[in-house]
Design a protein that fits this description.
The complex is a heterotrimer of chains A (about 525), B (about 190) and C (about 250). By secondary structure, chain A is an all-alpha fold. Chain A contains 14 helices and no strands. The chains are: A mainly alpha (about 525), B mainly alpha (about 190), C alpha+beta (about 250).
């Protein structure tokens, strides 16, 4: 819960930052209501913090920590996590990291402005980035966040492995739990070298070392490799739990077994493993040996295969179902529809030849928003609207939910489709104003930028419906029964909200998590803990 | 979301057969392997690309390093004996041996303190660049892990002396062996290799 | 397809554009198929009274083949994309054609500067021409560029040429280009390099032999050197801010 609310609060901040810089891009050099004039330095800080906040302080805490902490004990039949005090510690460290990051807005020089990728020498020397205190605070905040999730991962993994109810075998574990565990393992395996690299960058910033300074025998490219060795697996760290949430909802609202549960699991593992050998596709033109680029282009296109497989399996789950289009299902289906676009546009970037042109343009931004928004926003709304009754004991208003859904999803597309075009037309990233570039100032491109900004304003406005629905329903929503969606998994066998200790009597599990639509039974679902 | 005063049942089950405490220890060790592994790989790559660092590395105090290796190995032996005692349910003996292990850690840190003071007096500091930046970073990180290990060890020892939480003796022992193994890699790379 | 958005002005621009089109066709096909199947299934299997769901486990061979076959087709598409992609990459980043001229490009906070051979045609001699913000080149001439950074990581991008290469301090990175259309094209810095990142504009002026020769004579004459050829005032009327003005 604490993770959920902290994540939601950070999302509001991240969304506000996006509002400000898009206002600058859509209506250049004009006073932004609620902020003021966006100078180039402020612009850099805005985009840096927007990216950092959304990935580290919104996507990860909500998808992994909030849902993990809430769902794992309930779905495996336990009363709590295996190590509750370590759990509490990991939240406290996480909260500290958020506070350190927010503090960086207030220090002299302001928040760090070197992009979320923080490449040295820009990030290593205050003279270059003009935000020296912010730069170090940013680094410390990220490091603390890493520690929080390393600690949290302990609980998610160990609890799932060890604290399952009797009878729950490996293949009876619901998909979302597997995905959270897998995400924790991938995170743990990829974060190490970057933690080492971050210590080195912190020393460069504060202790006059020269790890990344070519004048002192260091190498900026080293940071890039360390960062992306972590950075690429990281996107799967957030993708897999998001896909897990969507899987749960698809099964419940199509009233169908997941198509190929084991295949899904194996392809998820395969994706996780492959994610460690694709990182340099972020560095094709970075000055690496050009021969390396070909290898990484091959591995990058290869990784599209298990992911495509998973998406096909999700779509196949709908076949033969009886689909109810309640709000959670709308979000889950939107995830698939939008993520498909994100996935295919990645091919343009993974192919080294086209990446020469598209690298660091708005095409990249549009691509990763078509993956990240499904991950961090669409699947999160899917999960919240789905588990809200269990969390809070009340039903959300479905009409408000649908209004929120359509407004958000349609506006989202109107924000980012134009950006594919402006990127293909040469808009480079992290540029606060295109007024210096004749080729970018043609009216068509200016109109596209403004359209994108207006669509963002629309999308942000529609979030009001969600906030109203969320907070009003806490007190006034229809009271929720234990299993309003008629799902088979264990969390729906306890009252809404669950009492202290979750289960009055710890359950025994007899079957897998997706027994829907069995012929010859009087209900179309067969709960995991029902003896017959 | 639980403020249970009693331990949750989740804590005491084990569907895999491996105690949760052991799993958590291996997780911590795994994450540390990635961190130290990353650092060491980076260092080795740089060292291979900078043969001139060999001249700098000659100034490390190999005797101190060797002494520290001996100290750590001995303390690991104490940790093993502590585990044996814990298995035999002899809490007070396990606690005593754990305290000896921690003492080994303290001696390690003292020798290192002396060694570094001399190095700094000779003018080799973190910002001396190249070899020394890596040396202090890697050895310093290792030293922090020794210190953290000592503190946790003393806490475990305090419980063990009362015959409580004896399963933790093995776990902290495992961690200590890991810290030892990292040093076994560090010593040749930082002190011996020219 | 990219030509619609920004016309290419170098010889390898069209190869990247063709590759882009190939990818667009292949992934576009799969995107449309997948979205159509998705929406068709949502429509066909929406909740209907009295129609129960089918119990499908995912082991049914006749259904699994609908996944396995597309799966293999996707792999084939990947290969069909990879081969030309690697060829395009090789041609631009690994292969070096016969070079007519060499230019040096320097990135620094926050401007591009250039060093070119003067009338003697040799780099690093007394008559070298040094410019800031403008690079004058001749059409249909193959240039090697030597790219350097004086401080942080920058990235030298000429979108019309489909040229992009990061500039790293401590290294000289080489590449090549051959402009094939006369005109003036933007240079953008495309790696975050600090407060002035968006102000690091430059221009590549591709001109005929005669115009280029005339320019060289002007540049070699101290009285007329340094005059900017292309207008700097941007079309939207806002003044081009100096770095000092925009610092916080």
């Amino acid at each position: 819960m604490q993770y959920l609310f902290t994540g939601m609060a950070m999302a509001l901040i991240g969304g506000f930052l996006a509002y400000v810089f898009r206002m600058q891009l859509g209506f250049p050099n004009q006073h932004v209501p609620g902020f003021g004039l966006v100078t180039p330095g402020k612009y850099n800080a805005l985009v840096t913090m927007h990216g950092s906040i959304m990935i580290f302080w919104v996507a990860m805490p909500i998808l992994i920590a909030a849902f993990g902490n809430f769902l794992i004990p309930l779905m495996i039949g336990a009363d709590d996590m295996a190590f509750p005090r370590i759990n509490r510690l990991s939240y406290q460290i996480f909260l500290l990291s958020a506070l350190v990051l927010l503090a960086s807005f207030l220090v002299k020089g302001g928040a760090f402005g070197g992009a979320w990728t923080s490449y040295p020498p820009l990030s290593a020397k205050g003279a270059y980035n003009l935000t020296p205190i912010g730069a170090s605070l940013w680094l410390v905040a990220v490091a603390l966040e890493f520690v929080a999730f390393l600690l949290g991962g302990i609980n998610f993994t160990v609890t799932t492995m060890n604290s399952r109810a009797p009878g729950m075998k490996m293949y009876d574990i619901p998909m979302v739990i597997w995905m959270i565990v897998l995400a924790s393992i991938i995170f743990m395996a990829s974060a190490g070298p970057l933690i080492a690299g971050a210590v080195m960058l912190l020393f460069d910033q504060t202790m006059a070392t020269g790890f990344y300074d070519p004048n002192r025998g260091g190498d900026p490219l080293l940071w890039e490799h360390l960062f992306w060795f972590f950075g690429h697996p990281e996107v799967y760290v957030v993708l897999l739990p998001a896909m897990g949430i969507v899987a749960e909802i698809l099964a419940v609202f199509a009233r169908k077994k997941l198509f190929g549960y084991k295949t899904m699991l194996y392809t998820a593992w395969a994706t996780g493993v492959l994610s460690f050998v694709v990182w340099a596709h972020h560095q094709f033109v970075a000055g690496i040996d050009p021969r390396m680029a070909n290898i990484f282009s091959v591995t990058t296109l290869l990784i599209s295969i298990p992911i495509a497989e998973m998406v096909f399996l999700y779509i196949a789950t709908l076949y033969g179902g009886s689909i109810r289009l309640k709000t959670p299902m709308l979000w889950a289906l939107a995830f698939i529809a939008e993520f498909l676009i994100g996935g295919v546009t990645g091919i343009f970037l993974g192919a080294s030849g086209t990446d020469i042109y598209l690298h660091d343009t708005y095409f990249v931004i549009a691509h990763f928003h078509y993956t990240f928004v499904p991950i961090a926003i669409i699947s999160v709304f899917a999960g919240i609207t789905f588990w809200y009754p269990k969390m809070f004991g009340r039903m959300l208003n479905d009409t408000l939910g649908k209004i929120h859904f359509w407004g958000t999803v349609i506006a989202f597309n109107v924000i980012f489709i134009p950006l594919f075009i402006t990127g293909a037309a040469g808009d480079q990233r992290r540029v606060y104003s295109y007024s210096q570039f004749q080729e970018q100032m043609v009216p068509a491109l200016r109109h596209l930028r403004t359209t994108s900004t207006v669509a963002l304003l629309v999308m942000l406005s529609f979030q009001v419906f969600f906030l109203i629905n969320f907070f009003w329903s806490l007190r006034h929503g229809e009271r929720a029964v234990a299993n309003p969606w008629k799902s088979t998994t264990l969390e729906w066998t306890v009252p809404s909200p669950p009492p202290h200790g979750n289960f009055a009597e710890l359950p025994t599990v007899y079957r897998g998590a997706y027994e829907y639509g069995l012929p010859g039974r009087d209900t179309d679902y067969w709960p995991q803990d029902a003896p017959n | 979301m639980s403020t249970a005063a009693a331990k949750p049942i989740a804590n005491t089950r084990s569907a895999t057969g491996i105690p949760s405490a052991k799993l958590i220890t291996w997780w911590v060790i795994a994450s540390e392997i990635v961190i130290f592994g990353g650092l060491l790989v980076i260092y080795i790559m740089h060292r291979l690309g900078h043969p001139e660092w060999g001249a700098e590395a000659a100034h490390t105090n190999t005797l101190a390093g060797a002494l520290n290796t001996f100290v750590l190995l001995t303390s690991s032996l104490c940790a093993v004996l502590a585990h044996k005692a814990a298995d035999a349910h002899d809490g007070p003996r396990a606690a005593k041996l754990l305290r000896f292990t921690a003492l080994g850690g303290l001696i390690f840190l003292c020798i290192k303190g002396f060694e570094w003071t001399t190095d700094i007096h000779e003018g080799f500091v973190l910002s001396s660049g190249g070899f020394w930046s890596y040396y202090y970073t890697i050895a310093g990180l290792h030293g922090l892990h020794v210190l953290a290990g000592m503190i946790i060890m003393l806490i475990v020892a305090a419980d063990a002396a009362k015959n409580q939480e004896l399963q933790r003796v093995e776990c902290i022992g495992l961690y200590w062996h890991f810290v030892d193994i990292v040093w076994i890699f560090l010593f040749p790379l930082l002190y011996i290799a020219r | 397809m990219l030509q619609r958005y920004l016309t290419g002005a170098s010889t390898y621009a069209h190869s990247i554009d063709h590759l882009f089109l190939l990818i667009a066709v292949l992934v576009g096909f799969w995107l449309i198929v997948a979205e159509c199947v998705l929406f068709w299934l949502i429509f066909k299997f929406r909740e209907k009274d009295g129609v129960p769901t089918q119990h499908i486990t995912g082991d049914e061979k006749h259904l699994v083949k609908w996944i396995t076959i597309p799966h293999f087709l996707v792999i084939i598409c990947d290969i069909v994309i990879l081969v030309p992609a690697i060829m395009v990459w090789y041609n631009i980043k690994q292969f070096v054609p016969p070079i007519d001229q060499t230019v040096r490009v320097f990135g620094q906070q926050w401007a591009w500067s250039f060093q070119q051979p003067g009338p003697d045609g040799i780099l690093d001699t007394a008559d070298d021409i040094r410019t800031v913000g403008e690079l004058h080149v001749t059409v249909n001439t193959t240039y090697r560029f030597e790219l350097m950074s004086r401080d942080v990581i920058h990235s030298f991008a000429v979108p019309s040429f489909r040229l992009k290469q990061d500039a790293l301090p401590g290294r000289t990175i080489t590449g090549w280009f051959r402009p094939n259309r006369v005109g003036t094209y933007d240079i953008q810095c495309t790696q975050m390099c600090g407060v002035g990142h968006g102000l690091m504009a430059g221009r590549v002026i591709v001109e005929t032999q005669q115009d280029h020769a005339a320019w060289m004579i002007r540049e070699s004459n101290p009285a007329t050197a340094g005059q900017q050829t292309a207008p700097v005032a941007p079309p939207d009327g806002s003044s081009s801010a100096t770095v000092a003005e925009v610092r916080r």
